[in-house]
Please model this.
Amino acid sequence: MEWMTERLHQFDGRAIAEGDAATLTYAGFVERIAHWRDVLDQWRIAPGERIGLVADYHIEVVALIVALIGNGCVVVPLPDDEASVLDERLDIVCATRLIRVVGGATQATCHDLAFSGEVSPLLNQLVAHHKPGFVIFTSGSTGKSKAVLLDFERMVEKFRSKARNGFRTLLFLKLDHIGGLNTLFSVILNGGTVVTCGGRQAAEICACVETNAVELLPTTPSFLTMLLMSGVYRDYDLSSLKVITYGTEAMPESTLVGLHRAFPGVVLKQTYGLSELGILATQSKDSSSRWMKIGGAGYEVKVQNGTLWIKSASAMLGYLNAPSPFDADGWYDTGDKVAVDGEYVQILGRESEIINVGGEKVFPIEVESFLLTLDNVRDVIVRNKPSPVLGQIVWAEFVLAQPEDAAAFRKRVVDACRGRLAPFKIPGLITLARADTLVGDRFKKIRKSKAATPAVP
Model:
């Protein structure tokens, strides 16, 4: 990866990091990479090793990752809040070491793991040739997490052409997320500045944007919905923002309209990607539209029976714990149902999330978008609830801004839906919840099936 080292040297005097990670220039960053290479030598980490990495964003962690890549290792970013699955995931990737980094990278430990078997033929495509890679586990919001094996050189090939102007970017999505890794390498390979924040609540993010003059905020629709509903953005100077990108889940129309009003001078751009395929280039019809063009160099796109299919030059090598999802020609069924308007598509929702009410299909995002416009609603998630009569009914679980009589709230919701939504789209079950039960730690709506909480009387 000589071109990557040469690229970093092009930006020697620029700041690569600010915020919680402290200020560091690109020249200083290259020195930190050299430091971590010395540490890897001390730990006797050899090319081809599979390294579990438990760490959060910090420029020292980024330097460690680049050092591991340069050493020809396969890096497996792991969250520190999923201890129950840690051993299982380390076993799936045939991990040889576990590195933990805490305290702003001031404390880094390396533990040898007792792996003595043979790596799988798929993983050996990288290991045998000492080629760097990543393993990312899918979120598992609708099923068991899959281990996605990525060839690092294929991941970053799209950044190899002439560097673009880099933004001061707040790294919101985590290291164990394809969007987080894509953002990270997009920033540092284009001479941008990494800004990190110790928390991910709306007030913390806003304060970080103000303090560090953040220009680009890549995040999720769920976080942006929370930001709007909380109103805390009004308490901070966010005039430095130039672009807000959003992806990982469908964007409610009401949230997008609200964002356009709240941030009229900011470009709102929808992104699209999957761990299995990488992040595609997108072009929104405009900042207030959910319609977008997707594709770009290295990608082919088609719509088959209303579902989006993609063929990608940067696609994963495969799953380490599941069969290949690609067809014989290399096409991948994303499972995303789309509407088509010429060159533009609009994501309607995952096929697995569609609610079938007596034979009628309901996309949760459509119902959520309307329910979010109701007074006193801070957030809402729409799921299916089994029904002996209709097969399924629409279940809406709300978070309220202020306490409200449950029975009166339910009546108000149903009355508001009549005349605005088709009868089969009106929630047949309405419940109340805490805010932290609707959105996971990746700030994405949790649509996994669960037992319904008691209905509002």
Notes: Residues 451-457 have pLDDT under 50 and may be disordered. The two ends are 62 Å apart (CA to CA). Residues 356 and 392 are 6 Å apart (CA to CA).
